[in-house]
Structure formats: structure tokens, C-alpha cells
Amino acid sequence: MTTAAITREDLRSVDLFDGCTDEELEPWLAAAEPLEVEPGEMLSEIHDVPAGLFLLLEGTLDMVSDADGRLEPSARQIAPTWVAAISSLTGDPLPVGVKATDDCRVALIPREAFVELVFGNRDVHKRIMRRVAPVMNRLSAREANRERLASLGTMAAGLAHELNNPAAAAKRAASELVDVLEVVTHALESFVEGGIERADAARLLELQREAIERAKTREPLEAVAAADAEDEMLDLLEDLGVDEAWRLAEPLAFLDGDWVQRIHAVAGPVTSKALRWVAATVTANELADELLDSTGRMSTLVAAVKTYAYMDRGGLVTADIHEGLESTIVMMGHKLKHTKIKLVRDYDKSLPKLTVHGSELNQVWTNMIHNAIQALGETGTITIRTSLDGPCVRVDIGDDGPGIPDTARGHIFDPFFTTKAAGTGTGLGLDTCRRIVEDRHRGSIGVDTGESGTVFHVWLPIEDTAR
Q1: Residues spanned by CATH 3.30.565.10 within the chain?
Q2: φ, ψ for residue 394 (rounded to 5)?
Q3: pLDDT higher for 232 or 187?
Q4: Contact 423, 69 (CB under 8 A)
Q5: Which residues of the chain does CATH 2.60.120.10 include?
Q6: How far apart are CA 384 and CA 217, in angstroms?
Q7: What CATH number does the domain located at 8-120 have?
Q8: Is 414:431 a contact under the CB 8 Å cutoff?
Q9: What's the mean pLDDT in 11-16?
């Protein structure tokens, strides 16, 4: 909606035109289109190329970004000032949106006219160029921090999920172990009360050891076969009059009728207690194995976190490149868990160790593996290959997904460029990879892509790797 015409005094209030003569202001005045903007109205949408230079004469504008579907203010512009000059000059999308926070009076210099006017006024051009670096640095730093926090949140959630499973299993096993140990502890008392002689007690111990050995070497059964074996054991125990036979049928189902009859021949009237004792010891061994497995998995995860962040070795480390790749795979495990994606490793284990910024380099592997997972969706193959390539260690991370579109191939390493939907990517992931590889490790990075998939290549020099 138009409002009062723009005056020369309006333009002079904006520092972009400091020192301009009346004659120099005339073409700007002629190009200026007056706008009246209401609170909440968007002057420019996120990732759109702006209509031109916005001269904010009255009011306040917010620079906003998309944070999971909601607009999040990142900077505030208070009149009089100017907005969107850099994107208007380059024709590139503005990485943020421009939103009015109150009633604003704005002069729009359309993009084509703005470009001509800027190159016709050296002082104005210098002021804009001086603003480029600080603005881009602030945007890059803010988006990079946001991406790191988002990655950290994803990793923390995944790690919590991965740790919760073995922790819950360990807790359950420990609780059940208390119950079965109670049975084992009172077994001797039960045998004494039942009149078991020393020789018979020795035979019961032999039968118990036999059951434990058979439990360790048994082959797992299919669900139907396991149910049939349990039913057969239940019938046998009930025929012998065993108390609460249904409780013992499942843990003793791997044994046969001959073993049960031998127990009955020795134990006689305390057969029920003898069988419960054997079942408890078999179960106790299984629970102990489960505890070892669960705590081992937790230790593996903790070790992977320490390697991923190199928490105990400082920022610069001398390490096998495969350490970082493997710890990253563990950290990304929750993203692969519920998919049919296959992970193939082709490592050259003879590669020399490199002196690297370990946690930063792991950020490169994280971004690349994460991109591969997103490219594949639910099914496909990710291949991670390491090799010696002249004076460099080469790491290839590829997927057999649809490849990168032709229109995007030349821009994938550009800051703020993304092919993802708004709010799902900052466009800084691969730019971060490039900076870490090239600026921090004196290496190089490239990509091959086509209908058969995409492969990212990273070359890291063996000598003097890290800056």
C-alpha cells in the first residue's frame, strides 16, 4: 500500500547516503518506491531473492529464520537504516526473512535500478562492500552454531536411546537375578529337610552341571519349535506331580525326559525343589551373561563418545583415521537402526596415523554420513572406503541414492545453499566440511554424482596435516 512520497530528507536520514550531494541523490529519489508495511507483514520471505534494497525510514524490522516451522528472530533493524543490499547486488537468495514488527515506512529501490545506481556511486558502493564481511560472518556464525546445537541435540537423543536399552536390560537382569539367587541359596536347606543323602546330593550336582553345559551349547529354536518343546516339558512335569510346573517348563524346555527322570530318581519327594534349583542356576547363568553383554554395550558407547569428541586427548591428536570413522558410525547408529540401509566398510588398515583436529574431522564424517542416510531414505547402501592416494590418505563416503540434481552440483559447497525443505537444513553442513578439510587440515574435498549415486572424496595429506 503506497503512502507519502519519499523526500530527499528521507534519504539523507539513512547513513548509506552520507556525503552524497543533491545531484547524486536525484536518481535514487526517482527510483524509490514508497511502501507502508503493517506489523507482521513479510517484506521478503526466507531464501527468496529480495525485491531490491529496503530503506527503512520509520519503524522496526526483524531478520527471521525458520526454526522447526516457526519464525525465530536473529537480528533487529531500527530506522533509519538499509536492508538486503548484498543479496540485491548478487541476486542470491537472502538466507533470512524480513518481517515488520510494527508500522513501518519503507522506500524500495528495485533490484535492477539498485545495481545500476550502486555502480554509479563509488561512495555508496564502498559502504555496502564494507558491510559484506561482518554481515556474512555473523550469519555464518549464527547458523553454524545453530547447526552444531541441532547436531548435538540429535546425537544426545540418539545416545540416550542407545544407552537406555542396555541399561534397562541390565536393570531387569539384576532384578531377576536377585530372585533366582534366593532359590539357589535355600536349595541346600530344602535338600537337608527332604532327607537327601550325601551321595545323592553329589549326583544332583552332576545333573545340575550337565544342565548348565547343555544350556550353554544349545542351539536357539524357532518360535514354534520352542513352544512345542515347552509344552512337552510341561506335560512331563505335570505327570510327575511337580509343583507349579508351568513356571519350570520354559527354563527347562531345552532338556529331555531322560534327564528329568534321572533327577526324579535321585530327588524323590523333593523333585520339585531340585528342578526349581536347577532352573534357577541355569537362569542365573543366562542373566549373568545378559548383564555382561549390557554393561559391555554401555562401555562401548561411552568409549565411542570419548573417541568421537577426543575428550581425553585435547584438540590436536595423532590417531588412526578409522577410529574417528568407527566412533561416528556408532554415534549415528540410531539413525540407521530402523532402516534397511546396509553399511559397507572397505578399510585399508595399513594407512599411517595422522595428526588431526579429531573432533572437527568427525564433524565432517557426521555430515557426510547423515547426508547419505537422508539421500537413501529407508533402503540402500552406504560405502565407506579408505585408501592411500599418493601423499594423502583418501576417505570416500558414498551412497547408491538418486544423486545430486544437475542444478545443484555446482553449489553444494556454497554457504547457505541447501536442497532440503525450508527449516530442515541450514545449508552450512558441506561448507563446514570444506572449511575443516581445506582450512584446518590442508586437504581437499570433492564429489562424484550421477544416477547410480553420490560419493564424497576427502584427501588428507600425511605430512603436516593439521594447521
Answers
A1: 313-461
A2: -110, 135
A3: 232
A4: yes
A5: 8-120
A6: 36
A7: 2.60.120.10
A8: yes
A9: 88
Average pLDDT over residues 317-343: 86
Which of 49, 48, 57 has the alpha carbon at shortest distance from 11? 57
Query: Rounded distance, CA 223 to CA 70, Å?
Result: 49
Residues 6 or more apart whose CB falls under 8 angstroms from that of 155 comprise 331
313-461 folds as Heat Shock Protein 90 (3.30.565)
User: Can you give the chain as a three-state secondary structure string?
Assistant: CCCCCCCHHHHHCCHHHCCCCHHHHHHHHHHCEEEEECCCCEEECCCCCCCEEEEEEECEEEEEEEECCEEEEEEEEECCEEECHHHHHHCCCCCCEEEECCCEEEEEEEHHHHHHHHHCCHHHHHHHHHHHHHHHHHHHHHHHHHHHHHHHHHHHHHHHHHHHHHHHHHHHHHHHHHHHHHHHHCHHHHHHHCCCCHHHHHHHHHHHHHHHHHHHHCCCCCHHHHHHHHHHHHHHHHHCCCCCHHHHHCCCCCCCHHHHHHHHHHHHHHHHHHHHHHHHHHHHHHHHHHHHHHHHHHHHHHHHHHHHHCCCCCCEEEECHHHHHHHHHHHCHHHHCCCEEEEEEECCCCCCCEEEEHHHHHHHHHHHHHHHHHHHCCEEEEEEEEEEECCEEEEEEEECCCCCCCCCCCCCCCCCCCCCCCCCCCCCHHHHHHHHHHHHHCCEEEEEEECCEEEEEEEEECCCCCC
| Least confident window among 132-141, 159-168, 256-265, 285-294 | 132-141
Query: In this predicted structure, which of 59-73, 131-145, 269-283, 414-428 has the lowest mean pLDDT?
Result: 414-428
User: For 140-159, how does the pLDDT look when each residue is reduced to its tens digit (9 = 90+)?
Assistant: 555 555 655 555 566 666 66
Instruction: Output the nine-digit C-alpha cell for 214.
Output: 547343555
In the beta sheet, which residues pair with residue 42? 99
User: For the chain, first and last CA: distance in Å?
Assistant: 55
Q: Which residue has the cell 594423502?
A: 392
Going by their DSSP bridges, the two strands 52-58 and 104-110 should be labelled as: antiparallel
Cβ atoms of residues 119 and 27 within 8 Å: no
The Cβ of residue 13 has, within 10 Å, a number of other Cβ atoms equal to 15
Q: What are phi and psi of 463, to 5 degrees?
A: -95, 135
Three cell numbers written together for 188:
541346600
